[in-house]
Design goal:
The chain has 283 residues and is an alpha+beta fold. 33% of the residues lie in helices and 26% in strands. A hairpin with a 2-residue loop joins strand 6 and strand 7. Helix 1 packs parallel to helix 3.
Length: 283
């Protein structure tokens, strides 16, 4: 199998309006589903373990012809996609979505497991495939970090009122969590550290865990859980992404958690631009 990879990074553009590409066919959709299933689990990649990541959203504006390698910047401009960063994987040889996914896992795990990307478009023509992953401009009008964290709390509590399947785990409706300012402070500290130092991990730069950070902030809990997100610019997108990811969803629905603190932080110099942390606890 011959495999080619094209990487392109661009600054944000002012883009015009044109019609989007056609919807993905069955094989393309299968590949998107396979990539999202791959992202939803911790994966070994380039000698490290990845984080569980929310699914990428299929965006028809990112469906570009696999056999026409023109200017990627120009193509996304015509499609009116307001991108900040974009990477394109070009494959030649896979006969179907399963074979394409195998090539992606073997050669491009770092690309599809990059937390900054939130959108995806896939196209193929016979044995030529093009996978485009992108991060758009931040468009959400966000307020104070902890005020937005309280919106995360409201959305989580709304989710907890309904029965939910999180991967293989079934959860019944459960009681709401309440806001805890100490957990919010710990969440804010970790979020700001990720944004300012351009990393995405439950372990901070000193090796500290969510439990360590909660304790340092003054919260002595019997149980601590943490969800993180990157590249998403509204509380709704963040919580929807967590609910679509089995491990994050299980934290959201865990009836043992009683309290929550959450916050976001922005740093334009970072890869993802915006980062979120929700810290769950039980005292």
């Amino acid at each position: 199998m011959r495999v080619h990879f094209t990487l392109t990074r661009f600054a944000a553009l002012a883009l015009g309006l044109v019609l989007s590409g056609t919807a993905a066919a069955s094989e393309e959709s299968q590949l998107v589903d396979a990539i999202n299933a791959y992202r939803s689990q911790i994966q070994p990649c380039a000698g490290q373990a990845s984080q569980e990541l929310p699914p990428l959203a299929a965006d028809t504006r990112l469906i570009l012809p696999p056999t026409r390698f023109g200017d990627l910047q120009e193509a996304l401009g015509r499609a009116a996609y307001p991108m900040v960063n974009v990477q394109a994987i070009n494959l030649s040889g896979p006969r179907d979505a399963q074979a394409a996914m195998q090539a992606v896992q073997e050669s491009f795990c770092k690309v599809v497991l990059d937390p900054q990307f939130v959108d995806i478009g896939v196209s193929h023509n016979e044995r030529d495939w093009r996978i485009v992953l992108a991060r758009p401009l931040l468009t959400g009008r966000l307020g104070d970090a902890q005020a937005e964290g309280q919106k995360v709390l409201e959305l989580i509590n709304s989710a907890r009122t309904q029965p939910r399947q999180c991967g293989t785990q079934a959860f019944s409706p459960t009681t709401p969590v309440t806001w805890n300012a100490t957990l919010a402070t710990a969440a804010q500290t970790h979020t700001r550290d990720m944004a300012n130092n351009n990393y995405f991990d439950h372990k901070d730069r000193t090796g500290g865990t969510p439990g360590d950070r909660a304790e340092m902030a003054g919260y002595i809990g019997q149980q601590i859980g943490e969800n993180i997100a990157a590249g998403l610019d509204t509380p709704r997108k963040v919580v929807d992404g967590w609910l679509a990811s089995p491990g994050h969803c299980a934290n959201v629905m865990n009836p043992q958690f009683r309290e929550l603190g959450a916050a976001y932080a922005v740093d334009p110099k970072s890869d993802a631009g915006i980062y979120w942390t929700a810290l769950f606890g039980t005292q």
